[in-house]
Design brief:
The complex is a heterotrimer of chains A (about 650), B (about 100) and C (about 180).
Chain A: H1 10-30, E1 36-45, E2 48-56, H2 58-81, H3 88-107, H4 111-129, H5 136-167, H6 172-176, H7 181-184, E3 186-188, E4 191-193, E5 198-200, H8 202-218, H9 227-230, H10 236-245, H11 247-257, H12 264-286, H13 291-311, H14 315-350, H15 370-384, H16 390-409, H17 415-439, H18 446-449, H19 463-475, H20 492-496, H21 508-534, H22 545-551, H23 556-628, H24 635-655
Antiparallel strand pairs in A: 1-2, 3-4, 4-5
Chain B: H1 4-24, H2 28-50, H3 58-88
Helix pairs in contact in B: 1-2, 2-3
Chain C: H1 2-22, H2 26-46, H3 50-75, H4 77-85, H5 96-118, H6 122-129, H7 140-150, H8 153-173
Classes of the chains: A mainly alpha (about 650), B mainly alpha (about 100), C mainly alpha (about 180).
């Protein structure tokens, strides 16, 4: 049990199990019951007092249930996955830290405290991404993640400042409760007027955009998504918990919390960014060969979906998608982790050098890992939105609502729902590609490993891994969320998070047509994928420019490197040059002047001042020397002076 | 006609020459010579004015006294010069310029 | 006629005195002094003081000068050496301060004489008028002797005592030192 020698992580397990139990009990107590909140005074500055406290409403109770439900299987899975790793005690430590931060984030009743936990979650992510810190790529990745997250934190701070200036409080109940300040303020005559302050209406938009900036960084929206693919450097169990299910969902949670703050322009902006994110991520996923990268881009794309859900006003649909996404994405990552685990074993046993995560090295794994195959397929169906899965309910809710919203706003806005439909079909395609390339067909590196082994090259994952995956698989199916597999409005989740009404009218025909389009599109993409990847009749050019661009993530990373990193280095080099040559030469010049002045003053002192004194002394000496001659003791001198004075006396007497 | 003025002019010249001798000679004896010249000039002066004193012959009598005094002075002076020479081995007045004995 | 003789004697006296001053050779200077004394005696004669002239020759020339010569001869070998060395330079460079002073005196005295010449004292005028001027046919010696014994007897005695003192003093001063 003691410190570093303990490999079992039993304390963390017990901890997360207790969180799960207490989370469940809390949910039972709070869901569809009155809100509970409690607070105490924390500190006072001037006239304002800051309090710390807990707020439990439907939203926070839901999150409080979700997080341990996803974290507990991951903890159990980690026991098997991280076995034998030399840093495992750090792993349990960081994982528990993350769970603490995430749970704290969802129950806090003040925006300031949310910010504190927000930062803590980002920090825990940094620690876990760089878990294998001896690898250079891991260190670069965690630095990148933290720096991009900081940009988002700046947005959060700006939003905090604006809200505090406008409302003089950061308490969620005071702001967003039923009779909150936000509902008492309105925009009149170009001014955003609240009960305690008023400012120009542009600040309302800015506050909304500031909070969205925070969500952009945390939830990996375009263009701040660049950290998430690199975050795959961490262990797979970490990726499943943090970068699929919970932390990236924190952004969506924040936006749902401060939803009343957004005005029309902010919401439209959110929707547009969400769409762009979803589209670009789906495009990039098409060209990746690393399993985890495909799943990372899939996460970004689905987060884009959630942002669109918020942008069109249906944040309950966005949250529904968040919950279902947590389950099936976590399962996808855990299955991928099982595959990678087995491939890494193969690598060490056969002493070959191949990338255990590369799709091109896999194939036909259905033979060796059938249970993993089944579970991963279930999760993929959920991701694609196939009927009878939970994903079908949540994804269709967003797409259908977006269609209704676009109809109510104007025909130009139909771009968004149409894009979402295309993206969904692409989603089905790329996840199908993954399944086909990994599980079906023949094992691609079989020839290389055949001689080195006896028996099957890969084994099924251990029970410790399979059981959590199985639990998550059950949650991917529809019964957990709604007894009606077709209509999402009957889901207990949507009922609980009920908004009074949407701002747009429902369109019943859309409820039928769109799911049909999505289903047909998914089946067609799977048939095409089957032909290309299983039967190897690939009809496109592998080295085409479009595929290359997708593989290189649209060269966005290179762009950022060129602008920000190189730019900063150039500025630093310029400052160094400036300091070295301009400032130092200025200092040297001043030094030269001072030295010259001092030399001049030395010269003056030595020759002029001293010279004057010496001259006076010389004159005195010379005069004395001359006068001395009077007393030379000679007789004739005395006689001479006598007669001289006699003569002078006579002259005086005679003439004057 | 030899007037009083002639005598006085001659006397003045002799006196000045004697003065110059006293002040600028490097020999003690020459200094005494200079003194003698000055006294002689004074005696000439006496005699010149005594011409006009028949009543008491004052000029000529004092001329005689002056001659005697000059002689006595020279005698004593030369005795002193002799002593100085014995002591200092020189009679250059420039070298006898200290109060203490050498 | 007289005046020419007077000028001759005067020039002789002054010229010898000047030459005396400028010679480095002291022996020759003393001999020039000898000539100066004779010339001065001559000048006394022109002032009708015959006894003073004779006394001058006897005392000065015959006594003082001889004394000086002896003293000079006895004074040092260095001077004799000096005589030999200084034969090259006949005249010595005079010191300018002494010249200036002497000339100053000369000018002053000549100036005074010229001033005085305008207004001589009254007693000289009276002497001329009252015929109490000495004339060449007077018996000076007799008159001087008479005056010595009656009018000036005290200075006469004093001066003889003084001479004796000088004699004793000089001989004492120049005594030979005993060997120590």
């Amino acid at each position: 049990m003691a410190g570093k020698r303990d490999q079992s992580g039993i304390i963390s397990l017990i901890g997360i199990a207790c969180s799960f139990i207490s989370g469940g009990l809390t949910w039972l107590a709070i869901w569809n019951h009155p809100t509970v909140s409690a607070e105490i005074n924390w500190f006072t500055i001037g006239a304002s007092t800051f309090k710390v406290g807990i707020l439990l409403n439907n939203l926070s109770a839901l999150m409080l249930l979700l997080v341990p439900t996803v974290a507990l299987p991951v903890h159990i899975y980690s026991r098997a996955y991280m076995k034998g790793d030399p840093g495992i005690h750090r792993y349990w430590m960081y994982l528990s830290l993350f769970c603490f931060a995430m749970l704290g984030l969802v129950v806090m009743d003040s925006l300031l405290l949310m910010y504190i936990f927000w930062e803590l979650v980002g920090f825990a992510s940094y620690l876990l991404i760089g878990f294998w810190f001896t690898r250079e790529t891991a260190v670069q990745a965690n630095k990148k993640a933290f720096i991009v997250n900081r940009i988002g934190d700046l947005g959060f701070l700006i939003g905090l400042a604006i809200i505090f200036t406008q409302f003089k409080t950061l308490n969620l109940i005071d702001l967003f409760g039923e009779t909150g300040l936000i509902y008492q303020s309105a925009v009149t005559n170009g001014q955003w007027v609240s009960p305690v302050n008023s400012m120009d209406q542009i600040w309302l938009t800015i506050a909304g955009l500031a909070f969205f900036l925070a969500a952009m960084a945390k939830s990996a929206q375009f263009p701040l998504h660049v950290w998430l693919p690199d975050a795959m450097e961490g262990p797979t169990s970490v990726s499943s918990l943090i970068h699929a299910a919970t932390m990236v969902a924190a952004g969506v949670f924040l936006l749902a919390t401060v939803f009343p703050l957004f005005n029309e322009s902010a919401l439209l902006f959110i929707a547009i960014i969400g769409t762009i994110t979803a589209a670009s991520a789906a495009y990039f996923a098409l060209g990746q060969y690393d399993i985890k990268r495909i799943l990372a881009f899939s996460t970004i794309s689905q987060l884009g979906f959630m942002m669109v859900g918020i942008g069109i006003g249906t944040w309950d649909a966005a949250l529904f998608h968040l919950v279902t996404h947590a389950f099936f994405k976590c399962l996808l990552f855990l299955s991928a982790g099982a595959i990678i685990h087995e491939m890494a074993h193969l690598k060490t046993h056969s002493h070959l050098d191949f990338d255990p995560q590369d799709l091109r090295n896999m194939g036909g794994l259905k033979k060796y890992m059938p249970k993993t195959f089944i579970l991963m397929s279930v999760a993929s169906l959920a991701l694609a939105g196939f009927p009878l899965t939970s994903g079908y309910l949540s994804k269709d809710s967003i797409v259908i609502s977006s269609f209704e919203w676009a109809l109510s706003k104007g025909d130009f806005y139909l771009i968004i729902p149409v894009s979402l439909i295309v993206i969904s079909i692409l989603t089905a395609f790329y996840i199908g590609r993954l399944i086909f390339k990994a599980f079906l067909g023949d094992f691609r590196i079989m020839d290389q490993v055949k001689d080195k082994l006896h028996g099957a090259p890969l084994h099924e994952a251990s029970k410790t891994m399979l059981i959590p995956m199985f639990i998550l698989g059950i949650c991917c199916l529809f019964p957990l969320f709604s007894l009606n597999p077709v209509s999402y409005h009957d889901s207990w989740l949507m009922d609980g998070l009920l908004l009074d009404e949407y701002t747009f009218a429902p369109c019943h025909s859309a409820h039928l047509i769109i799911p049909l389009i999505l289903l047909i599109g998914s089946i067609i993409s799977w048939v095409v994928g089957w032909k290309w990847y299983v039967q190897h009749t690939y009809s496109l050019n592998t080295n085409s420019l479009a595929l290359k661009a997708a593989f290189n993530q649209g060269y966005i990373n290179e762009l950022y490197q060129w602008i920000f990193v190189d730019g900063t280095l150039k500025i630093a080099r310029f400052c160094y040059w400036f300091d070295r040559y301009v400032v130092d030469s200025l200092v040297a010049f001043i030094q030269f002047i001072v030295l010259s002045l001092s030399r001049l003053s030395v010269w003056i002192d030595k020759y002029i001042v001293d010279g004057f004194v010496n001259a006076v002394a010389s004159v005195a000496y010379w005069t004395g020397n001359q006068v001395r001659l009077v007393q030379n003791g000679k007789l004739q001198t005395a006689l001479y002076s006598v007669f001289l004075f006699v003569l002078l006396g006579l002259i005086y007497l005679i003439f004057f | 006609m030899i007037t009083l003025t002639h005598f006085l002019v001659v006397s003045a010249c002799i006196f000045c020459i004697g003065l110059y001798t006293v002040l600028s000679k490097k020999n003690a004896i020459m200094i005494l010579v200079g003194i003698e010249l000055m006294i002689n000039a004074a005696i000439l002066n006496f005699v010149a004015f005594g011409k006009y004193d028949k009543v008491s012959y004052g000029g000529q009598i004092f001329a005689l006294f002056a001659i005697v005094l000059a002689a006595a002075a020279v005698a004593v002076g030369l005795a002193l010069v002799l002593n100085v020479y014995r002591h200092y081995k020189t009679i250059n007045p420039d070298e006898i310029n200290e109060l203490k004995d050498k | 006629m007289e005046i020419i003789l007077f000028y001759a004697f005067a020039v002789l006296a002054i010229g010898s005195a000047l030459l005396l001053v400028n010679l480095k050779n002291i022996a020759r200077a003393l001999f020039l002094f000898f000539i100066v004394l004779f010339a001065m005696a001559g000048l006394y004669l022109f002032a009708l003081a015959d006894f003073v002239a004779i006394t001058q020759i006897m005392v000065y020339v015959g006594g003082v000068l001889i004394l000086m010569l002896f003293a000079f001869m006895l004074s040092n070998k260095e001077l004799l050496k000096d005589l030999k060395d200084s034969s090259g330079t006949f005249l010595s460079m005079p010191r300018w301060q002494a010249i200036v002073l002497s000339l100053g005196f000369l000018i002053l005295m000549i100036f005074g004489i010229r001033e005085w010449q305008q207004s001589p004292p009254t007693w000289i005028q009276q002497a001329r008028e009252n015929n109490t001027e000495i004339i060449s046919t007077d018996n000076n010696i007799q008159q001087i002797g008479l005056r010595f014994m009656t009018f000036y007897v005290l200075p006469f005695e004093v001066i003889s005592v003084f001479l004796m003192m000088a004699l004793i003093g000089a001989s004492h001063l120049s005594r030979k030192e005993r060997d120590r």
